[in-house]
């Protein structure tokens, strides 16, 4: 049974006319008739009752018709999917992410995406969640990795939770271990520690300061205002300790002592966001799939 034969069979079944069916599938009428007869021989049953000016389906034809339509529909779907993937030979994805996610989460995922689709340009914008939400809303980004809850929730954005990440305390190996040398440190133990703090508007700054205040003290900053790389460099230099995501500490751990926070600890929820009113481009949807399946 050939795919082409099923196409011809469905065309005749729908038009109830061999000549019109041949025109519909762009083939000569004798060729179409020969293929229908070949299909009937293979199946061992007539598919049509042929009376002058009156073509009707036999019981065998009625049984075959829904199956043939389903096969053709599945083939059409497969063709479109393959064509869409083939179109990923070129194009771009505009992805926004917080600096900590650019350091911790994205390198491995982007490497896998680039290996699979080397022709797709990856345009990455670093920023805080508030800035990224604004860029998404105005159409400057296709996707953004943001920290929940969003500073300004918007029904115009769709968010999908990606992961829940622990935060840890990093310090210089040459400095005394926070928490009086214990293997874990409590937020309360950060009282009296000099903190290396991120700039205003940074998600990790707000989370850390709020956690300290919940324990009844104001954090003491040794230095503040940096991005992720600067903060890690200041900690390595022994200027103080910092609270950073576990993935960042794992990737940037050389020259740092990493101490987990005691339960319940501190966590942050990472989500993938895009505009609700516009579907991301095909290449962006593929990157979205890879992030969700990581």
TrEMBL record:
Show the GO MF annotations. Answer: DNA binding; DNA-binding transcription factor activity
Q: Which domain of life is it from?
A: Bacteria
- PROSITE patterns referenced in this protein's UniProt entry, alphabetically: HTH_LYSR
The GO cellular component terms are: protein-DNA complex
Pfam families (UniProt xref): HTH_1, LysR_substrate
What keywords appear on the UniProt entry? DNA-binding, Transcription, Transcription regulation
> Which residue numbers delimit the HTH lysR-type domain?
1-58
Annotated InterPro entries: LysR_HTH_N, LysR_subst-bd, WH-like_DNA-bd_sf, WH_DNA-bd_sf
Record family assignment = Belongs to the LysR transcriptional regulatory family.
Q: What's this protein's name?
A: LysR family transcriptional regulator
What species was this sequence derived from? Answer: Streptomyces tuirus
